Amino acid sequence: MSESRNKVKLxxxxxxxxxWDEQNEKWLFSVVDVIEILTEQPTHDGARKYWSVMKTRLKxxxxxxxxxxxxxxxxxxxxxxxxxxxxxxxxxxQRTGKPAVSRLNAKxxxxxxxxEAKDGDGE
Length: 123
Hints:
The protein is an alpha+beta fold. The chain has one domain. Helices cover 41% and strands 25% of the residues. It is built from 5 helices and 5 strands, in the order βββαααββαα. It has helices at 31-38, 44-60, 65-68, 89-96, 106-118; strands at 7-11, 14-21, 26-30, 70-75, 81-87. Strands 1-2-3-5-4 form a 5-stranded antiparallel sheet. Strand 4 (70-75) and strand 5 form a beta hairpin. The protein is globular. The relative contact order is 0.17.
């Protein structure tokens, strides 16, 4: 995966950063971006703090966030490439307990990837 593959999808007027993981054939989404939508955080900073508290609680329960998600470099809101926690829809649904994650419409993203590849703009 390379930084040129980072994509942004608008969902309910919020940006969700995502990337295709060729090795595992799954879409990976920025955890903070998804939390911002699902928890209806008014700001991105609020979502970052929410995820930070959630990771701390997971560690206290004995779970390691690295087993829940991985990190990839994605373009941050300041335009710089930064390591970002990412997870696929299944991991997100397990951790947040919200099946609403599927509202990100991973099937649509998969279809878009097929069209991009078909048009020669494949990732």
